[in-house]
Amino acid sequence: MTQKLVVIGAGMASGRALEELFALAPGAFDVTLFNAEPRGNYNRIMLSPVLSGEKTYEEIVTHDAAWYEAQGVKTRFGEPVTGIDRARKVVITGKGETPYDKLVIATGSTPFIIPMPGHDLPGVIAYRDLDDTNRMIQAANTPGARAVVIGGGLLGLEAAAGLRLRGMEVTVVHLAGHLMERQLDEAAGYLLRKALSERGIAIHCSASSREIYGQGKVEGLRLEDGTEIPADLIVMAVGIRPGTALGKAAGLAVGRGIHIDDQCITSDPDILALGECVEHDGAVFGLVAPIFDMAKVLARTLAGQSAAYVPIEVATKLKVTGCDLFSAGDFAEGEGREDIVFRDPARGVYKRLVLKDDRLIGAVMYGDTADGSWFFGLIKDGTDISEMRETLIFGPAYQGGTALDPMAAVAALPDDAEICGCNGVSKGQIIAAIHDGAHDIGALRGTCKASASCGTCTGLVEQVLALTLGDDFVLPQAQPVCGCTDLSHEDVRRLIKTQELKSQQAVWQELGWKTKDGCHVCRPAINFYLLADWPLEYKDDPQSRFVNERNHANIQKDGTYSVMPRMWGGITTPSELRAIADAAERYKVPTVKVTGGQRIDLLGVKKEDLPKIWADLNDAGMVSGHAYSKGLRTVKTCVGTDHCRFGTQDSTGLGIKLEKALWGSWTPHKVKLAVSGCPRNCAEATCKDVGVICVDSGYQVGVAGAAGMDLKETERLADAPTEEEAIELTIAFIQLYRENAKYLDRPYKWVAKVGLDWVKQQVVADADNRRALVERFRISQSIYQKDPWGELVSQEERKAWSTPLATVNLEAAE
Amino acid sequence: MTHWTDIGSLEDIPVRGARVVRTAAGCIAVFRTSADEVYALDDTCPHKGGPLSEGIVHGASVTCPLHNRVFAFATGEAQGADPEVVATYPARIEAGRILLDLAALKARSAA
Ligand code: SRM
Ligand SMILES: Cc1cc2nc3c(=O)[nH]c(=O)nc-3n(C[C@H](O)[C@H](O)[C@H](O)COP(=O)(O)OP(=O)(O)OC[C@H]3O[C@@H](n4cnc5c(N)ncnc54)[C@H](O)[C@@H]3O)c2cc1C
Ligand code: SF4
Ligand code: FES
User: Fold this and answer.
1) Chain B contact present for A811, CB below 8 A
2) CA-CA distance, A124 to A715, in Å (whole number)?
3) Could you tell me the residue ranges of all domains in chain A?
4) Is residue A523 less than 8 Å (CB to CB) from chain B?
5) Using alpha carbons only, what angle is made at residue A608 by residues A604 and A612, rounded to the nearest 5 degrees?
6) Are A649 and A693 within 8 A, CB to CB?
7) What distance in Å separates residue B75's CA from the closest CA in chain A?
8) What burial class does residue A245 get, using C-beta atoms within 10 Å of its C-beta: 0-12 exposed, 13-18 middle, 19+ buried?
9) What is the dihedral of CA A358, A363, A367, A370, to 10 degrees?
10) How many whole angstroms from A122 Cα to the centroid of ligand 2?
C-alpha cells in the first residue's frame, strides 16, 4: 500500500530530494507538498542575477506546477503549515489537517532582522525570496533612489551589486573590519572592497548601525558614530536563522537547527528533515552543496535503502560579475600552519594557500580564480603536496616540471615580453636603454621609464640589468624598510602618495608585501605615513604603535610607566604643582623628577593606575606631555622680556604659542623646540630641531640642530620680522618634515638628505607653498590635536583598556 | 588532563592586540591575530621580563616591547639567534568565547 508522504517547504532541498526519491522508488508514496511561497521551486541562488537583470525569473524555475503534476504530487502552494500533531500524525494549515505516514520538514531558514529602532518601517526588507527581489527591482525603478545594504557578506554584496547595476546609489554598512570576513582574509577583502568601490558602491566597514529613521517610511540609517546615510530602501542581510519554529512547537529535538542523524531522521522516527532548517553533528548549513548530499541520503532513507550523510568541505564564490573570488577550507592561522602568498598588484591578483602537515587545508583567491577547483580538490582529497610545494601556487599548469630558476625564466623571455606594466616597457626596450648607457635602476627609470611608476617590477628590471651587464652589474643597496618588502622608506612614501594608498591593507597589497600583516618595524612607519598623508581618510591604528604611544606613557624596565603632563613653555602655577603633588602621593609615585625639558616627570606608575592619574591631572587642567611620542615634546623657553633685563622679545609667550599650535601632531621622530629671548641663549635653542633666537629686529629661526646621539648647531632657515611669521615658518617646516622624512629620522638627518636649500625653497622662497603647508597642517591638527588622556574618556573604555581580561583563581577552579 | 577555563569573549581583545589574564602563578597574555585566532603565552619575556602583551602583534608572533625579541605564538620560541622560549598554553574559541587550558599552570602553582 502506498504511504502518505507530506513535505513542508518547496525549496531547493525538497526539490532535489523529491527528484531523487521518484528516481529510486517511483510511486512508492502519495505525496502532498506545502509551500509558504505561492509558487514551486526555483533556483534560489540565481536570485542575484535576476536582481541585476542578467536573468529572468522564468529562467531560474527548476520545478514548476506542471513538473509536480507529472509526478503525481498534490501541491498546496501559498499555504503555510502552522502546526504538526505528532500524536495523530497530521499537519495543520489554515485550511485544515492533512494526515501523514512520513513527514519531511524542509522549511529552509529565515533572514535575521536586527531589532533596532525603525526596523519595521516600510522600505526595510530582507533578501531571501522572489518577492524580496521584486521589491528591490521596483525600488530601483524610481530615478535617484538610494539604498543601504546592512551586511557585507555574500548576500549583502550580491544585493548591493545588483541594485547598483539597476542604477541605484548604494551604500554597504558592515560591522566587521573587512568584507566577507567569514570567507575572506583581509587582503582579499581589501581587493573586493576596491573593486566594488570602483563600481560606485560606497562601503563602510567597522560600522555599526544604531537606528533606521523616517516618518512612516524609511528615510535613512543612523550609525553608532552619528553618521546619517539617507536611503529609500534598506536591505538587511546580516545572517539567517534555521526555520525551526514548526519542529520546536511539535516537540522535536532542536538546537540551532532541527536535530537530524546521519539518515536525516529527526528525534521522531517518522519525521525527516533536511536543508537549512537542520542541524547535523553541531553544524548548520547555508550553501547548497551539502544540502544536495542530504537530499540523496533522505531519498534513500525514505526508499528503505541504507545511506549516511557525510559532511563535506564547501567552497564559496561571489556571484558578482567581474569580482572573481574563491575561498575554501580553513584559512585561519594556527599552530603548525604555513602560508604561501602570491600577489600581483598590477593585475589585482591575490592568492593565499594554507598548508598543514604537507596538506593543503585552505585557499583564498582574488582576481584569478581559475585554479580554484583544482585547489579545492587537493583540500578535499587531502593530497600530499610536498613534491609540488615550490610551484603549488602557480596551479596545475606548472606541476610536473622542474623548479623554476628566476634568472633562467627572465633569460627565456622574448624581447617583446612586457616587463614594466605601468609604462608598457618591454624587455627589448630595457636592453636597448642599457646598451645606450643606462647602467643602473635610477638611469633606467630616467630613460626608458621601466619600474618608474609603481616600482613592483624593480626585481625583474634588475634581473634584465644583471643578464645584460653580466659581472659589471652590482645590485644597488637601497635599504629596504624591513624584511617584509624590498622597497625603501622613500619608495614607500612616494608610492603611498602617487598611488593614493590609504590603508595598511592597500600598502601591503599594492606594494607586494611579503608578509601577511607586516612586522614591528614596518607597521609603525606605515601607520605614520598614512596618517600624515591622509589625515582625513586614514584612521590611526593603535595596534601598529609601539607600547608607549599606545599606552600614552613611557614604559620602563620593570613594566611601570612614567607620566608627564604638559607644561606650556615651561610655565606652571601653584595649583598645577599642587595637583601634581597630590597625584604623586595618591598613586605612591616613587620618583618625581624635574626633566631636562622644563617639566615634571612622575616615574614608576602602574598601568592600572594610569587612567586614574590622568583623570586627576586632566581635572586640574593639564594634558598629556606626549613624553613618549614621535611628536612634539617640549618647547623650552627662557623668561624673556617679562623679567629679564636682556630680553628683546616675548620668548616665553612665543614658546607657549608654538607649543599650543604644534602639540598632538605626529611626526617621523620626536621634535623639540626652544625659544631664547636673546643671543645669550638660555633656552639652548641652537641645538634643537627648531630653535628661535629673539633679536631686536625680530626672530632668527634655526632648524636641524641636534644634542642627543649627535651634536650639531642649528642652521638658519630665515629671519622673521614678526611673531606671526616666525610661527608660520616653524609650522611649514614641521609639515614639510612630516610629509617627506623617513620614519625615525630626526629633522637634522632628513635635512642632510634633502639639503637645506630645497627646504628653504619650499618653506621660505615659495610663499604659496608655505601657506599650503600650514593649511595642510591645520587640517591634520583638526583630527589629531587631541589629548590622548582625555580621549580614553568613558569609564568603560578606561576599564577595558587597563584591567585584566580575567582573574583566574587556580585553586577555586578545581 | 585538561582544564579549560572560560576567560572572556573574543570581542574583548582588539584585533592584532592582547589582554592579560591574572593568575596566582603570574600573568598570561592572550593574543588575537588578524585571522581571529587566539594564543596564550606567559606575559613575562624570558629575556628581561618585558610585558609581551604590550608588544606589536604581526602574523602569528609578537615583538617584545623592551628589546624587540620576536616570539612565535605556536612554539613560544624566539626568532633567529635568540635562545629564549616563553611558555605557551592551549587556547581555543568556542561560540565566540575564549577558553584556556590552564592545566600546566595549575600543576606549576601546586608544585
Ligand atoms: C625624562 C628625560 C631625562 C630627564 O630626567 O631629564 C628623558 C628621558 C628619556 N629619554 Fe631623553 N629625556 C629627556 C631629555 C632629553 C634631552 C634634553 C632635552 O630634551 O632638553 C635629550 C637631548 C636632545 C635630543 O632630543 O636629542 C634627550 C635625548 C634622548 C635620545 C637621543 C635622541 C637623538 O636623536 O639623538 C633618546 C633616544 C631616542 O629618542 O631614540 C632619548 C630617550 C629617552 C627615553 C624616552 C628612553 C626610552 O626610550 O625609554 C627616556 C625615558 C625615561 C623614562 O623612563 O621616562 N633621549 N633626552 C628628559 C625628558 C625631557 C622632557 O621634559 O620631555
Ligand atoms: C540571494 C541568495 C543567493 C544565494 N547564493 C548561493 C550560492 O551562490 N551558493 C550556494 O550554495 N547557496 C546560495 N544561497 C543559499 C541557498 O539558496 C540555500 O542554501 C538553499 O536555498 C537552501 O535550501 P532549503 O530548501 O533548505 O531552503 P529554501 O530554498 O529557502 O526553501 C524553503 C522553503 O520552505 C518554505 N517554507 C518555510 N516555512 C514553511 C511552512 N511553515 N510551510 C510551508 N512552507 C514553508 C519557504 O517558503 C521556502 O520556499 C543563496 C541564497 C540566497 C537567498
Ligand atoms: S636669554 Fe638672555 S635675556 Fe633672555 S632671558 Fe635668558 S638671559 Fe635673559
Ligand atoms: S625583555 Fe623582552 S626582549 Fe628584553
Assistant:
1) yes
2) 65
3) 3-109+242-302, 113-238, 489-544, 631-786
4) yes
5) 90
6) no
7) 8
8) middle
9) 70
10) 24
Q: Does domain A3-109+242-302 have CATH number 3.40.50.2000?
A: no
CB of A746 within 6 A of ligand 2: the answer is: no
Q: How many CB atoms lie within 10 A of CB A34?
A: 22
Distance A528 CA to ligand 4 centre (A): 25
Indicate whether B110 pLDDT > 90. no
The 8 Å CB, 24+ separation contacts for A327-330 are: A327/A180, A327/A183, A327/A184, A327/A188, A327/A362, A327/A363, A327/A364, A327/A365, A328/A362, A328/A363, A328/A372, A328/A375, A328/A376, A328/A379, A329/A354, A329/A360, A329/A361, A329/A362, A329/A363, A329/A376, A329/A379, A330/A354, A330/A361, A330/A362
Residue A813: predicted pLDDT: 42
Inform me whether the C-beta atom of residue B59 falls under 8 Å from chain A C-beta atoms.
yes
A231, A146 Cβ separation under 8 angstroms: yes
- The DSSP output letter for B55 is S
Cβ-contact A193, A179 below 8 angstroms:
yes
What span, in angstroms and rounded, lies between the C-alpha atoms of A557 and A548? 13
Residue ranges, chain A, pLDDT below 50: 401-404, 812-814
Give pLDDT, residue B31.
97
Domains of chain B (ranges, CATH numbers): 4-110 (2.102.10.10)
Task: Give the tens place of pLDDT for each residue, B47-62.
Answer: 889 999 999 999 999 9
With CA atoms as reference, the chain B residue closest to A796 would be: B12
Contact A558 B49 (CB under 8 A): yes
Instruction: Give the torsion through C-alpha atoms of A541, A547, A549, A554, to 10 deg.
Output: 170
* Per-residue pLDDT reduced to its tens digit, B13-71: 999 999 999 998 889 999 999 988 999 999 999 988 999 999 999 999 999 998 889 99
Q: Map grid coordinates 602583551 to a residue.
A: B53
* Residue A766 neighbours by CB distance under 10 Å: 14
| Ligand 1 center from residue A241 Cα (angstroms) | 58
Q: Is A110 helix (H, G, I), strand (E, B) or coil?
A: strand
Question: Considering the entire predicted model, what is its pTM?
Answer: 0.66
What's the CA-to-centroid distance between A437 and ligand 2, angstroms?
Answer: 67
**Check whether domain A113-238 has CATH 2.40.10.220, yes or no:** no
- Nearest by Cα to A44 from A20, A73, A13: A13
Of B5, B65, B70, the CB nearest to A546: B65
Do A134 and A128 meet the contact criterion of CB atoms below 8 Å apart?
no
Please give the Cα distance from A387 to A403 (Å, whole number): 11
**How many angstroms separate the CA of residue B99 from the nearest CA in chain A?**
11
For residue A7, list its beta bridge partners: A33, A104
3-state SS, A359-404, equals: EEEEEEEECCCCCHHHHHHHHHHCCECHHHHHHHHHCHHHCCCCCC
The protein residue with its alpha carbon nearest to ligand 2, atom 6, reads A45
Rounded Cα distance between A8 and A258, Å, is 14
Establish whether residue A239 lines the binding site of ligand 2, counting it when its CB lies within 6 angstroms of any ligand atom.
Answer: no
C-alpha cell at A507: 600598502
β-bridge pairing A202-204 and A209-213 = unpaired
Indicate the top mutation candidate among A8, A43, A45, A112 to test ligand 2's pocket, ranked by most ligand atoms within 8 A of CB. A45
- Same fold yes or no, A113-238 and A631-786: no
Into which CATH architecture does domain A631-786 fall? 2-Layer Sandwich (3.30)
For residue B5, the surrounding DSSP H or E stretch is strand B4-9
The 10 Å Cβ neighbour count of residue A305 is 11
Element (H, E) at A807: strand A806-808
| Angle separating helix axes A522-533 and A489-498, nearest 10 degrees | 40
The H or E element containing residue A137 is: helix A130-141
pLDDT of residue A345: 76
